[in-house]
Amino acid sequence: MSLPALPEESFRRLLCVVAHPDDMEYGTSAAVARWTAHGIEVGYLLLTRGEAGMPNRPEETARLRLAEQRAACEVVGVQHLTVLEHPDGVLVYGLDLRRDICREIRRFKPDAVLGGGYEVEAPYGFDQADHRAAGLATLDAVRDAGNRWVFPEQIDDEGLEVHTVRWLLLPGLPGFGATHGVEVTGEPLRRGVASLKAHAAYLAALPDHPAPEDFIPKITAMGGRALGVEHAVLFRAHDLQAPPDFLGEAGQE
What we know:
Blueprint: E1 13-18, H1 28-37, E2 41-46, H2 58-76, E3 80-83, H3 95-108, E4 112-114, E5 121-122, E6 125-126, H4 129-145, H5 153-156, E7 167-171, E8 180-183, H6 187-197, H7 200-204, H8 212-227, E9 232-239, H9 245-251
Parallel strand pairs: 1-2, 1-4, 2-3, 4-7
Antiparallel strand pairs: 5-6, 7-9, 8-9
Helix pairs in contact: 1-6, 2-6, 3-4, 6-8
């Protein structure tokens, strides 16, 4: 049985929160290209500048990677890019990180937030520490943003407002908890591949990194089989305004 399509009609603005430049470009940006083409406003929040990701000096690496990220954003139609300066490689889960993510949620006012996984083990091995910290802080910041008494200085002193997010999206893979998919066959996939290729200097610094056009379509083809289309990006989608499943089941008895 195929997975259902993500109900994109239920959101008009989406914020993607990731740890590093290039984190969005390993398949997910193909879905972003589809969303922006359909008039959905997508913003990126990068928690670090990625300065520890190359052999160059950190400041030089940060400048290079942010320039490549801006180019990648342009490819998929993302105009809103916010970059924080938490330290790359040693990102720490805690109130400072939650506060900064909460601020951007309240500022951008998304209907949906796309975060990363926060589990130690991922389908491809042990996940990187920054990714785990970013994923967990994003999960908590989504709830923080809707509570007037959490980080109240953002409301009292900065002029922001409480904001309630409906959808939390997390990466998904066939057989690893995916609940919904987004078809990216054709132009969205082409743009998704091109967005990763925009990180040319970074990829060149990684030994034996495969060409984006060689492996991104393979990932999306796996997703496509789960959705019943040629190419798709899969997600674990949580409707935060829906009643818990166990309540729905109880109500049917």
